[in-house]
Structure formats: C-alpha cells, structure tokens
Design a protein that fits this description.
The protein has three domains: 2-54, no CATH class; 60-141, Orthogonal Bundle (DNA polymerase, domain 1); 162-194, no CATH class. Helix 6 (168-177) packs antiparallel against helix 7. By secondary structure, it is mainly α. The chain has helices spanning 34-49, 64-74, 80-98, 108-117, 122-141, 168-177, 182-191; strands spanning 2-7, 13-20, 26-31. The radius of gyration is 26 Å and the shape is elongated. The chain is built from seven helices and three strands, in the order βββααααααα. GO terms for molecular function: DNA binding.
Length: 194
Amino acid sequence: MSITRYRTSSGEPRWRVTWRLPDGRTRSKAFGTAREARAFEAEAVTARNRGVVFDPYRGDAFSVAAVYASWLATRQDVTPKVRRGFEDNWRLHVQPAFGAWPVTTVDRESIQVWVNAMGCAPRTRRWRHSLLRMILAHAVAEGLLVKNPAERTVFPPLDLAEHLYLTHEEVADLATRCGPQGDIVRILAYTGLR
C-alpha cells in the first residue's frame, strides 16, 4: 500500500493510494488532499487487519436491489408473516428510493433526506429504515461496503402515548353497569390480568 503525489493535466496536486488485492491485481484511488488519502489508507489497512478483502470498487457492480435479494435469501430464520412485511416494506418504500442505486453510492445524507421526507409517524420511519439498514449491513458483511451508512440516521422522537387509568369510582360505576359481569371488570381492573 502506498500514497504518491502527482499533478493533473491542469496542474492541480492529487494523491493516489495504491493497494494490491489478494489475487494480485493492483487498484488505486485518487484524492484531492493528502489527509483524505491517509484516511482512506488507514481504512484499507484496518479492513485488511480484520480479514476483510478491501476493494471499494467491488460494490459498484451491485445494486441495492441485488443486495436485498441476497440478504432476503439468507433470512431463513423469519416467519412467513415477517418475510411478507420485509417484502412489502421493500416494494413500497425502499425499492422506489434506493433499488436501482449501486450499493456504494448510498450515503448517510441520502438516507437522512429519505427518512426526513417520509410523511408518517416516527415509529413507521424507523421500521422502513430498519430494512435498508439490514440490507446495507449485509453488504458490509459481504465486503461490498466498508461501513454501513444507515447506522447514524437521526429520527424524530417517538410519540409516547399518555396512559389513561380509571379512578376507583369509574371502575365501580363500570362494574355496576356490567351487571352480572361486574366481578370480571373488578378483577381485570385491580389485578392487572391481560
């Protein structure tokens, strides 16, 4: 792995990081600053030390839709109902937004804009986002991405429902109105049975 400085045809300085893949092929990537090049090199070294084949261009060949299909095929642990939920969430929300994108072009900002544009409750936003997060986590596990851009998404606060409780007088009134079933109302109200 090496960093070399060079100049473009217009005379601007650039830094090229060069590294070798396990099969012997050489790859390189250019950066506008030495700092960016060093950060990229550190990321590559860290990935190599973790035993991950580092090839930032590998993910360019895979769309988010292809990674979704691969991820769904690995999810044999879910019930048919959960699988249908994943498929519906994908078809209605994630695929229209990201399905055709190369997996390497999905970034944190794009995901945040998508989440912010959803016109639904905070819990629904989290559910829709969770599918994309799991798909991108699969891409990381497969070596298509170095890190998951969906990990640091910010959500609006959850709407916490206010709990309403009957007073003793309201329970007594309800039990009286229920006639012979009033004892059941009292048991349910005061014992917490479900």
